[in-house]
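Narrative of activities, Objective 1.

The group set out to show that a structural description can be obtained from nothing but a protein's sequence at a throughput compatible with the screening campaign. Below is one input-output pair from the validation batch, recorded exactly as produced.
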Amino acid sequence: MSHPTVSATPASVTPPTDQRLAELLASCVDDPARVTTALPRRIAAAHDASPYLFTPRAVVRAASAGEVGALMAGARAAGVPVTLRSGGTSLAGQAGGDGIQIDVRTHWRNAEILDDGHRVRLQPGLTVRQANARLARYGRRLGPDPASESACTIGGLVANNSSGMNCGTRDNAYRTIESLRFVLPSGTVVDTADADADEALRAREPELHAGLMRLRERVRGSAASRATVERLFAMKNTMGYGLNSFLDHSTPADVLARLMIGSEGTLGFVAEAVFRTVPLLPHTATGLLVLPGFAEATDCLPALLAAGARTVELLDAASLRVAQRSADPVEALRGLTVTGHAALLVEFAEDDAEALEHAVAAAHPALRLLPTVTPAVLTRDAGERNRLWRLRKGLYTAVAGARRPGTTALLEDVAVPMERLTATGEGLIDLFARHGYDDAVIFGHARDGNLHFMLTQDFDSGGELDRYARFTDDMVDLVLGAGGTLKAEHGTGRAMAPFVRRQYGDELYEVMRELKRLCDPHQLLSPGVLLDDDPQAHLGHLKSVPEVDPAVDACVECGYCEPVCPTADATTTPRQRIALLREIALAEAAGDDDRRRALEDDYGYAAVGSCAVDSLCVTACPVHIDTGEVMKRLRADRHGKAAQGVADRVARHWEGTVTGVRTALKAAHAVPLPVTRAAARAVRGLGARELVPVWTRDMPRSGPDRPAPRHPAEAEAVFFAACIGSLFAPEEDAGRTVGSASAFLRLCERAGVPVAVPDGLGGLCCGTPWQSKGYTQGHRTMAVRTLDAMWTATDHGRLPVVCDASSCTHGLERLADSLPEEDRARYAALRFVDSVAFTAERLLPALPAVRPLGSMALHPTCSTTHLGADDALRTVAAALSPDVTVPDSWGCCAFAGDRGLLHPEITAVATARQAAEINTRTYDAYASCNRTCEIGMTRATGRPYRHILELLDEATAPAVAGM
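Output recorded for this entry:
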């Protein structure tokens, strides 16, 4: 237990200027560069998944518990409140504030596996999915299983007492956390894993320690209070503070640790949590049971739970109608005329196949007795199960994506006692009709009496805001009248803070008020979150969502894109890129030219220029927004007619251009490094930052010629050797520099698989250099030329086209949008296959025995993700080595063609964590499947990354005598 080193004075002072605030905060952290008061950065950081918007005065990326304590002291001295922010996926407004926002995600992503995975120590910046990925190899996972697990962080999971579809109240955060290390607003650090934690708390914080004991006895001594707490916390309940802590634990340190869980950052900062984990249950059987009505569905719950169902998800009639509109509705919904129906998505899960068979067999009698309108069938088929879960998880996508532009998608959740579930669900449906929410849907975790409902709302007109206020009041009456809680999983936040007193009553509300005063006497942490006496507080500071671009208007600012974005820690994320577009539009509409100019000037690099355009964001986005494509279009908009013309001429003379670049590389490497570096710096300083690379010692040399044409009679494929392998030489490793193109052709020869190489290959390209930079005219020219050549070479699509660089294979797959309409039918007949996938399927079985490598570090690429080729890459890697490691912190390297050469600072940040993880040990080989990604990872790690086919070529080549 410790105190920060920064002293503080009472916060009864005039708030400091922005400059003085920045100086004060900079003195609290080791690196002042982690503090910003710049308008674009503050606005970008302000947006979260909630409908609320508060713009902070400063944003600080803290890197230690000591820094957080110092920042709290500094904020207290300045009289400025603090908001702790990690993933920003919370839905109720708890992640925003107008004071100092402390980022506790960027530098807080460590995990330590304990007791063979039975326990795990986690920092707040790691996502739930990332934590579970580390546990999976031990057959374990975290107990809480929120649907937002791909983006929600451990910090939010603790702060909101997260649960999920399966965990109920038994395995939620509160029940599975063993110990916490947290920082109080005073700066005191408490670690409840320490045996003397309570004595230390008494010594450091005597008033807090004594006050917690008083509150404990106050709650325990009141029969009415005990009854209310026991009733509410028998359900999922994240409304207000976790007062059940006073009943469940005795020492003030333990009580305080449990109160931190679900406190939404209002009592302190949780720097570390140790969880007890639960076993993975990999064997599952799933079914969709369609019932005649809502009441019949809820009436089935006791029988299903008694039969051993581990998951029971409820979908109302509106949800089923939405699901029927999907491109591929599940069989149970085909042809069904949905009137008042409802459905239950049921899943049984066990740790082995035999146990699952027994569980399903035992459940069959109960299933046969249910009044289903379609057969009650359970499937073990992975594809069918995925389709069923896509139905459930796709509801958010379908409703949010179809909402009217300019409206907000609201996802709320409540819980009621099981015997009140039917009436509450029917009451909500009635409220939707009464208040005109025709697109609202209900779904949820039926086994816990937990209902989620989603509706769309316009907050930009007084009438609409009044409608929302009336609906909220009626919903509160309905749920509290049923003895329920207004927040089951999503946290109180600002949305329900005015209703806490009503749910708990005056006595327990005053206990919460006293708890807040004891922990945070200066009201430093997130004032207005969780507790607020203003009855209208939930109706203020609501976002405006202007229309800016049809391609992004569906964005709900959920933040699911951020964990996969390689520039998240360097510049901006997809959510922030879209939010800044909206803020620019709002500033323009308001006539605030200074604000608009400041945002636009920053946007050019921070959003458009720095984007890796790898489009991993679309793989995570629930409404399928491809922000990378939007950034490409914005790049195109910046190019004038002359620039587009030059790019088109480059496309028309591509073979000569490649030859020129290779010659320039050779010449540059012949000149002393300081001279070349200075010349590049000078040219970049004249405005060529997007054309001339930052010259470094490890700049690759020019590569070999592309393969000569070959036309074997029985060719099985056409080989499209990527030009990147000709521009840049392969990584040198013990003098072996064969390159991926030569390696692939040698593997084909060795496996007895003839492949053709087309005529005129030197002038062909996948088009990515033009597409990624927004040179639309040049991209169209190259697309037409490449299509014509491949149409002939493949015998009108009879043969597949195989490419040896994953990003180029992906580029070939995306040529269609640039082709004239009359050419798209020919293009659709072509089939493009990455060389790694072709090798895994066709070559590996025919190759000689592999001389295995002891170990390998493997870097999949963003393109293998898009291509669905990750499994093929792992297959080839497994054939080469029994010990293959893909780092848990894997992500796109952001080299992005030439981005890593032009802006190496982006790649450095994007690869830092995975490079550190890789370098914790030494591997016999380092592999990827794209030349520029290999360059990026070699730079990041200092290890020689090579194309995996080069390694396979060497491992299957005839042994050389004496070697």
